[in-house]
Every structure is written in C-alpha cells, then in structure tokens.
C-alpha cells in the first residue's frame, strides 16, 4: 500500500512537471513570435490610420451627391475605424512591451480591455446605423427628410457611441464580474469570458447579433431592389444590353467583409465562454485582430469606389500640393495657374451646392449608380 502511494505521488509529480514544461514551451514560442506579431499590428495600424485620415479630409466638407446626414454617419464610422489605429493598437502594444501574462491582471489591463471592447462595439453599431439610414433613403425617399431628421441622425450616432461604454462598464472594474488578463498569443488585454458566461453571452446577444440582423436585412432588401431595377433597365435601355451589376459590386463585398472580419472573433468569444478553453496561438491572434482590418476595408468599400469621393479627393490633393509647392507645381507642369483657379472654383461651388434630402452614398444609391455607371 505504501509502495502504491509512493508510485502515485511520483506519477502526479511527473504529470505536473510535464504540464509545467509544456506551458513554459508554449509561452516561449509565443514570446518568440511576438516581434513578428508586433510588426503585423504596426503595419495594420498605419494602414487604418492613413486611410481614415484621407477619408476624414474629404467628407469633413460637402461631397457632391452626399447629404448632410450621410456625412454624419460616415464620419462616425470613420471615427470608430480611426480609433483602432489611434487607441486600440497603441494601448495594447504598450501593454505588450511592459507586461507578461504571468504578472496577472491589473487596473490598467482592465481599462485597456474596456477600450478594446468599446471601440469594437461602436464600430458594429455604426455599421448597423449606416445600413438603416440607407434603407430609409432608398425605400422611403419622399419621407426621408421627416423620418431621418438631423436630430434623429445625431441621436443614432450618439447611441452608437454611448451605449457600448455603459454595456461594457463591468469590464473596466478590477474587482468586477469579469476577469481580464493579458494574452501573449494575441498581444491584447482581453476579458476572460468564462469567468461570467451569462454576461459574456449577453454581450453577443446585445451587440453582434442585433447589428448583424439589421445589416443583413437592410442590405439584402437593397440588393433585391437593385437587382429588380437592373433587370428593368436592361430591358428598356440600349436595346436590352446588359448593365453593370452594381448591387453585387457594392453590397456583396460590404457584407462579405463584415462577416469575414467579425464572425471569427465572436465565435471565439462564445467558444471561450462556454467551454472555458482557449484556441491555438495564431488562431486567437487572427480572430482578435481581424476586425481591425475591417477599419481599413471600410475605406475602400464605403468611399474609394465612389466616383464623387475620388473626384473630391483629387481636388483636395491638387489644392494642397499647389498651396505647399506652387513653384514645383509650375516646374513639373502638374497644374497651371488657370488650373489652380479652376480647382478653387470647383471647390467653392462644391461646398455651396444645396444638399439633397435623401442619402446618396456609394451603397445607398444603387438605383442611381446603375444609370450613372453606364453613362
């Protein structure tokens, strides 16, 4: 009996040693991958920041065909996307340089996790409000001004920015219901969702699923309407010649990118909350940082594919280049003095145009874009 007890104790000791060795080896591998992960995060942060700065420089002033409400919602989206590069990435990189997972949670890590979750949630709510605003603009064009007043638009934007911090407040409390730790796999301070399964699941029930339902319904209705309009125009315009599939070119990429970027992160959160287990190192890294890339892709699908946006951007760049380097502009022959006056005239005329009542942006004017594309 004594011999069996000794063997049992010895076996337990060996198992603990093996588990400790595996944990140390796994942690050493994560630390070895850390420089490469930091480079990826930095590159992604620069892309998101520069892309959204260019967008803000354009839509902060009026753009031909874009209503005031459209610019408000798109500025809100750009601000949320910019927060990825200006808040989320610097905070988490700062923690990754001064903290190790073995040090345990602290107040600063709770604050960082709170900002992470708030920015992610604000971005999803903003995307949902944009889809809802475009749905109203297309299906209720005559009632749009009464349904989506300036005050209501600002209320929706305020809700998208103020509701997430209230909902996610428990994450910021060091002694709250949610534990927070720094992950060496993803280099972020993230909540330990299995510490409170009910609260963790309620987050997805209040954020991801409602926003996804609103976006899917609104964009699916817009896509169906655009397809019907395309079929009608193809029969009556230019002897039935096939027209460009604007609906698929705009709405399908928007929804595909949204689900591709956000679904892995939400699935991992639900899996961690229910099972109490973590996924592999690189799977966690990709799932956590993939939504950040949505902040850069939004610049492409919501702005750069729009002809009015590109035209206004070129006008801004030309005016800025002439203001900074007039002599160089003349020497290079990029723009003559007549061209400069023309740019100023276009700028001033564009800013004084009376805005349309309905929202006309890259994905809400599918019916108009179909005709414009052919012309």
TrEMBL record:
* Entries under Gene3D superfamilies matching the protein: Rhodopsin 7-helix transmembrane proteins (1.20.1070.10)
SUPFAM superfamilies in the cross-refs: Family A G protein-coupled receptor-like
Under PROSITE patterns, the record lists: G_PROTEIN_RECEP_F1_1, G_PROTEIN_RECEP_F1_2
What is the topology of this protein in the membrane according to its UniProt annotation? Multi-pass membrane protein
Which domain of life does the UniProt lineage start with? Eukaryota
Keywords in alphabetical order: Cell membrane, G-protein coupled receptor, Membrane, Receptor, Transducer, Transmembrane, Transmembrane helix
GO molecular function annotations of the record: G protein-coupled receptor activity
**TM segments?**
38-60, 72-91, 111-132, 153-173, 197-220, 250-274, 286-305
Where found in the cell?
A: Cell membrane
Q: Which GO terms describe its cellular component?
A: plasma membrane
G-protein coupled receptors family 1 profile domain residues: 51-302
Question: Mainly resides where?
Answer: membrane
Instruction: Name the protein family.
Output: Belongs to the G-protein coupled receptor 1 family.
What is this protein's record name?
Answer: G-protein coupled receptors family 1 profile domain-containing protein
Write down the species: Alosa alosa
């Amino acid at each position: 009996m004594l011999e069996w007890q000794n063997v049992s104790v010895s076996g337990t000791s060996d198992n603990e040693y093996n588990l400790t060795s595996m944990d140390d080896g796994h942690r050493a591998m994560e630390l070895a991958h850390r420089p490469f992960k930091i480079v990826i995060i930095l590159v992604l942060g620069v892309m998101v920041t520069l892309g959204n700065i260019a967008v803000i420089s354009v839509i902060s002033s009026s753009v031909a065909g874009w209503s005031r409400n459209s610019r408000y919602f798109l500025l809100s989206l750009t601000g949320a996307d910019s927060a990825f590069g200006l808040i989320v990435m610097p905070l988490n990189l700062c923690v990754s340089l001064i903290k190790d997972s073995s040090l345990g949670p602290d107040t600063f890590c709770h604050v960082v996790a709170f900002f992470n979750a708030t920015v992610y949630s604000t971005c999803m709510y903003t995307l949902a409000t944009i889809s809802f605003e475009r749905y109203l603009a297309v299906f209720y064009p005559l009632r749009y001004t009464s349904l989506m007043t300036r005050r209501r638009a600002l209320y929706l934007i305020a809700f998208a920015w103020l509701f997430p911090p209230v909902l996610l407040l428990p994450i910021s409390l060091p002694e709250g219901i949610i534990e927070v730790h720094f992950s060496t796999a993803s280099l972020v301070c993230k909540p330990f969702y299995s510490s409170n399964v009910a609260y963790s699941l309620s987050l997805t029930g209040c954020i991801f699923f409602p926003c996804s339902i609103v976006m899917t319904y609104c964009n699916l209705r817009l896509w169906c309407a655009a397809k019907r309009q395309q079929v009608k125009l193809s029969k009556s315009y230019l002897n039935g010649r096939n027209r460009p599939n604007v609906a698929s070119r705009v709405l399908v990429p928007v929804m595909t990118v949204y689900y591709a970027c956000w679904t892995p992160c939400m699935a991992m959160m639900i899996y961690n909350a229910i099972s109490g287990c973590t996924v592999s190192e690189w799977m966690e890294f990709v799932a956590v940082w993939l939504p950040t890339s949505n902040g850069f892709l939004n610049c492409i699908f919501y702005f750069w594919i729009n002809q009015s946006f590109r035209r206004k951007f070129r006008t801004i760049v030309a005016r800025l280049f002439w203001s900074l380097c007039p002599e160089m502009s003349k020497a290079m022959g990029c723009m003559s003095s007549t061209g400069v006056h023309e740019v100023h005239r276009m700028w001033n005329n564009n800013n004084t145009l009376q805005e349309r009542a309905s929202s006309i942006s890259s994905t809400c004017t599918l019916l108009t874009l179909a005709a414009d594309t052919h012309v």
